[in-house]
Design goal:
Blueprint: H1 7-14, H2 18-25, H3 37-44, H4 56-85, E1 93-99, H5 117-124, E2 127-133, H6 139-148, H7 152-155, H8 165-168, H9 176-182, E3 186-191, E4 249-252, H10 260-282, E5 286-291, E6 299-302, H11 303-307, E7 340-343, E8 346-349, H12 363-393, E9 400-406, E10 411-412, E11 418-419, H13 425-428, E12 429-435, E13 445-447, E14 451-452, H14 456-463, H15 482-487, E15 495-504, H16 525-528, E16 530-539, E17 543-552, E18 557-558, E19 566-571, H17 597-626, H18 637-648, H19 674-677, H20 683-691
Parallel strand pairs: 1-5, 1-9, 2-13, 2-14, 3-5, 4-6
Antiparallel strand pairs: 2-12, 7-8, 9-12, 10-11, 15-16, 16-17, 17-18, 17-19
Amino acid sequence: VPYTPLAPVFVSHFAPCNAIRALVLATPAQPRHAIPCAAAARHRCGAPRRAQHPNPRSHTLQRGTMRLLIALLATTHAFKQQRDDNKPRGKRNVLFMIADDLRPQLGHLGHSDVDTPQIDRLAKTGVSFRRAYCQAPACNPSRNSFLTGMYPDVSKVFYFEGVTHLTLGKRGELDVFTHMRSHGYITMGVGKLWHWEPIGEPFTRGTGAHFPKWGTYSQEWGCGDEDSGGRCSPRKEEVPDGDIVMGRVYPTQDPAESLFDYRVASDANKKLALGAKQWSMRRRPFFLGVGFHHPHTKWRIPVQTWSQYQDRRIAMPDIQRKTTGAPFYAFGDNNIAPTAITIDGTRHRVPAKPYKEGKELPEHVVRELRRGYLASVAFLDVQVGRVLDQVDNLHLANDTVIIFTSDHGYGIGERGHWGKGSLYEIDARVPLIVRDPHHRHMWGRSTNALVELVDLYKSVIDLAHLPFGRHMYQWLEGRSWRSIVETGQGGNSHALTIVPKCHGKKYGDAPPHNCGGRSYEWHRMEGGTKAALVGFAARSHRYRYVAWMDHNESLDAVDWARAPVAEELYDNSKMDEKDLDSSDAINLLSAAAQLSGVEWADVRDKADGHLRWLRQSARDRFFRAFGEYHTRLHDQSDTVKEFLPSHSRPAALPPRDPPVDAGRAPRKKPRFSMRGAFEGGRARRRQEWGRV
């Protein structure tokens, strides 16, 4: 454009920056002059006419201005493209990382005795959930629950029975990976995602072999086979006393590259590179699941990591402290914990019944075991950081939703409890971090909203911006975390955790233990001498209520029309998150609480409210799974017919009177109070107490 009168038109239509527009418009436009005499003479003589600017300096300035304009336009386009990268472009990639047996003892949660800089770094760019709970305090049922979107009492997967497919037919195959694959996602997995091998083909073909390869899934996860996975079990030369047990740290001189979780992170980085290539070339999103083994026992870690924790000062629980007023089967046995351990030349046996006093391990043994667990967490943190670095290096951070959690909590000496399997806060609460790259105003925040791991299925669909039909998968449970991640609002009223305990035909004649086999086999085991209780824990914002229900053999379910066999209610309003031993201190429904009449009426009201929620939620779960939906995948009419009569009867109520300790003299009953009789909805019970 040799003349500036065209520049204002060009700038006004194509320049997005007001500063550029002002720069060009401020350039003075030169008037058109007559052709000089020499040029006119040549034209008259037939010589070709050559355009000549009247002012060469002005012409040079105009050309420089246009070059500057084009350069600034290109720069502005680049910045605009960068801003567009931060905007959602339809579907999003999803990276799901899960640890094994990781409890909420991390740096960003206020614990200074463990170093987790990489997980804390993820929490600074995401939302940390302080009230996230699993649905089963064991590996297999918990993973089946959140990968299929069903509670254990519906899928009938309570312990190590297998996968949901064996109970619910084809619906067991519709896990979250299969669903994402059906919507065009590249689904990939590495490490321990399911406890056993999944059913069907959840992962996209052509994405490389799964690590460890199929056929090596076991309790040890191929850790002993160096061809299929990194080694987890210690070598003989690494155990000086020859005593190999589950819960003990085994420092190794082997390179970190040979360990299982290091290989999991390395394989995850390869699959991230594959997903990034497909995302950049075809805009085809991916869903990658990464399952780490640590801090699951055995704690085999590099010796460099163990040296940082070998003499570290750590927080210690009160090993003599017990949960006051809890039934003896609440904790069950410690069959997952180390049965015996030799430290300093002395063999110590872990008590099988933690509810009995005087059976605790010595304090120095507890301290070494806790150090081993924290060192294992530190090794896990390093591997999580390697995966996060790969996300940044591949420029996937602006297009990838990251979820990090654990399958359940873990007890390491609190109140004599080792391992998992209880319904208490120590085993049910898990860490959870969700990073949404398009809602940075929520980064670094933490929330006390109640959420469940069973929400994962719907949350992945929602956070990935996939369509979710109203009548799609009616049996799916849970509620999406998207509203909490984007606005901080939402959550559940209660969180549910379920665990069964088997025992002798009479309560107390045999120690309770984890039920083996399928639920319809519980009453036939060992010649029909076994019975089963199923514990349902409802965690609200303040209370934890536990109802222990008899398992009905004919229904293969719990009959909610009956009254609970035992109940527990704990007030966790003063729970300190930095002290994992500060929750579930005393059962308010036991005689040990020593409540007065008015206090008992209030506590009984709270327990009844939680029990009503348990009954109603169980009914809703059943009809969502087996009800008359036009989209259900198989017929269960016989089950419905058997289930309906048990829920049509009025539910039995627990005793209305407060418990009395047989070894304590009965106290004088309080006098009737008119003021207390007319306060809110508790007037009836207070009047009944006053008439006694």
